[in-house]
Design a protein that fits this description.
The chain is an alpha+beta fold. It has helices at about 5-10, 15-25, 65-105, 120, 125-135, 150-155, 160-175, 200-215, 250-265; strands spanning about 35-40, 40-45, 50-55, 55-60, 140-145, 180-185, 190-195, 215-220, 225-230, 235-240, 270-275, 280, 285-290.
Length: about 290
């Protein structure tokens, strides 16, 4: 049956063109003297006497019946439209949250090496360290600096220097434990946060990093087109924080950084703890392997 809805009740639906679209699709809205015509969002009203039309035969209905049916239909359409809209809003919110998470991660990443950057250390890592302190768990910080990195740039160019930085980070990330964080602190200096360890383990890990970097070669093409490679070393300053300590990250980082510069003064290519305990000391150099 095709229904005709009185013009008197159309005014209550004027605020919702979604309802109009539905009504004009499912129903033929008509009066004796004319029709209610929908064209896009434009509504043309004509006629004054409401009727229902069924297979060409007009049938009058009471205002109460038309009112009840119109309200029921309007409510159904509104509820359905609202549910659909809420579902779309929910999907959009989820997409925006995922996008924001990606952007926040990008902001905390070093664009050259892919390591975490100083911002991550200052913001996110601070909260993690606070959790370690509250949980009374031991942790440690390693500060590393590439030995003679300026000479590397001067001798081989900044493009090669960038390759060295990328390769060092890749190696550090490869051998780091799950849950530890490699951070580019600035320039050729790196910071590694290590959680849930004791002092002996921190010493072993620090020495593992130093050896791994020293045994890594970074390949590149010389200006003449020859295949060459370069190996560098790092000096490491370490600071261990026992479980009963309340030292905060900023202070611990300063201690490890001071130990790093002491390691530089002690001959480079070594690990030195903030209490002046030296772990290793070997000859420091930049090795270039020229391949014809």
């Amino acid at each position: 049956m095709k229904h005709v809805i009185t013009i008197d009740f159309i005014s209550i639906l004027i605020y919702s063109f979604d309802i109009y679209r539905y009504l004009t699709t499912k129903f033929q809205i008509q009066t004796k003297q004319g029709r209610l015509i929908m064209s896009g969002d434009k509504v043309v009203l004509s006629g004054q006497v409401p009727t229902f039309q069924s297979q060409g035969t007009e049938k009058k209905i009471s205002r109460e019946e038309a009112w009840t049916e119109t309200l029921s239909l309007a409510n159904t359409i509104q509820v359905t439209a609202l549910q659909t809209q809420l579902a779309k809003v929910g999907e959009e919110n989820k997409r925006l949250k995922e996008k924001n998470a990606e952007l926040e991660l990008l902001v905390c990443m070093d664009s050259l090496t892919g390591a975490y950057n100083r911002r991550y250390l200052d913001e996110t890592a601070q909260k993690m360290i606070a959790n370690e302190i509250r949980a009374k768990r031991s942790w440690g910080v390693l500060m590393m600096d590439i030995d003679y990195f300026k000479k590397c740039n001067d001798d081989f160019g900044h493009n090669v220097g960038d390759k060295v930085l990328i390769n060092v980070v890749k190696m550090l990330q490869h051998i780091s434990r799950k849950g530890d964080f490699v951070i580019r602190y600035g320039g050729e200096e790196f910071c590694v946060l290590i959680f849930d360890i004791d002092a002996d383990e921190l010493e072993v890990i620090a020495e593992r990093y130093r050896k791994a970097v020293a045994s890594t070669y970074t390949p590149f093409l010389s200006e003449c087109g020859n295949e060459e490679s370069i190996s560098i070393t790092v000096s490491v300053g370490a600071c261990f924080v026992p479980s009963d300590s309340t030292m905060e990250l900023e202070y611990v980082t300063k201690l490890a950084d001071k130990a790093l510069y002491d390691a530089k003064d002690s001959g480079r290519n070594c690990v030195l703890f903030h209490d002046r305990r030296k772990v290793k000391n070997e000859e420091c150099c930049i090795i270039s392997d020229r391949r014809q």
